[in-house]
């Protein structure tokens, strides 16, 4: 029988919603919670507050004036956080690339949309917040690594498809 002291340490998954990562100050507070909580192995984040709604509006193919308003809101939110991060050139380049993707995809959605296009556009909110939050954690001295959970989900989907394709047909 194993003693209690040899039991593996409990791993914690921390989840923060949009208000908890709404801006730089909110991210700082959430990062503090992560760093003060023993055993945090994974942090899951929503998009910053208001970003998902703006992305959904873009994905639904809104008129150009509304697209520009939504894009400005998204850009302003990301840049407010970026402006407070030291040495942010690498993450800024990635945020700029993602903002460019959102612009291109929202232009496409204005012509015709699909559930796949909606998913692609909306996913950018979480990607940007996790990239920025990773930098906030690093700024506070954490050794952390960002990864794209979509790769894990794709592997799960592909595995499920492979298993289903092997089932005999009735």
Give a brief description.
With 170 residues, the chain is mainly alpha-helical. Helices cover 63% and strands 6% of the residues.
Please describe what this structure looks like.
The protein has 6 helices and 2 strands, in the order E-H-E-H-H-H-H-H. It has a domain of about 90 residues: Four Helix Bundle (Hemerythrin (Met), subunit A) (Up-down Bundle). With about 170 residues, it is mainly α. Strands 1-2 form a two-stranded parallel ribbon. Helix 2 runs antiparallel to helix 5 and helix 4 runs antiparallel to helix 5.
Mean of the pLDDT scores? 90
Radius of gyration from the alpha-carbon trace, in angstroms? 19 Å
For this structure, what is the CATH class of one domain? Mainly Alpha
State the order of secondary-structure elements, H for helix, E for strand.
EHEHHHHH
CATH fold assignment of one domain: Four Helix Bundle (Hemerythrin (Met), subunit A)
Distance between the termini: 49 Å
Q: Using the alpha-carbon principal axes, give the shape.
A: flat
- Low-pLDDT residue intervals, each spanning 5 or more residues: none
Topology:
Layout: E1 12-16, H1 24-36, E2 40-45, H2 51-59, H3 64-82, H4 89-111, H5 115-139, H6 149-166
Parallel strand pairs: 1-2
Helix pairs in contact: 2-3, 2-5, 3-4, 4-5
EC number: 2.7.2.4
InterPro entries: AceGlu_kinase-like_sf (IPR036393), Asp/Glu/Uridylate_kinase (IPR001048), AsparK_Bifunc_asparK/hSer_DH (IPR042199), Aspartate_kinase_CS (IPR018042)
Organism: Morganella morganii (Proteus morganii)
């Amino acid at each position: 029988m194993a003693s209690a002291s040899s039991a593996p340490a409990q791993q914690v998954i921390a989840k923060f919603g949009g208000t908890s990562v709404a801006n730089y100050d909110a991210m700082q507070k959430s990062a503090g919670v992560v760093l003060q909580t023993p055993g945090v192995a994974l942090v899951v984040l929503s998009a910053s507050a208001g970003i998902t709604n703006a992305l959904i509006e873009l994905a639904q193919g809104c008129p150009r004036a509304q697209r520009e308003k939504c894009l400005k809101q998204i850009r302003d939110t990301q840049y407010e956080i970026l402006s407070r991060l030291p040495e942010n050139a690498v993450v800024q380049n990635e945020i700029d690339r993602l903002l460019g993707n959102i612009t291109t995809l929202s232009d496409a959605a204005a012509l015709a949309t699909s559930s796949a296009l909606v998913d692609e556009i909306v996913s950018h909110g979480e990607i940007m917040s996790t990239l920025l939050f990773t930098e906030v954690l690093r700024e506070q001295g954490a050794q952390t690594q960002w990864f794209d959970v979509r790769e894990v989900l794709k592997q799960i989907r592909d595995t499920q498809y492979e298993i289903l394709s092997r089932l005999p047909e009735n």
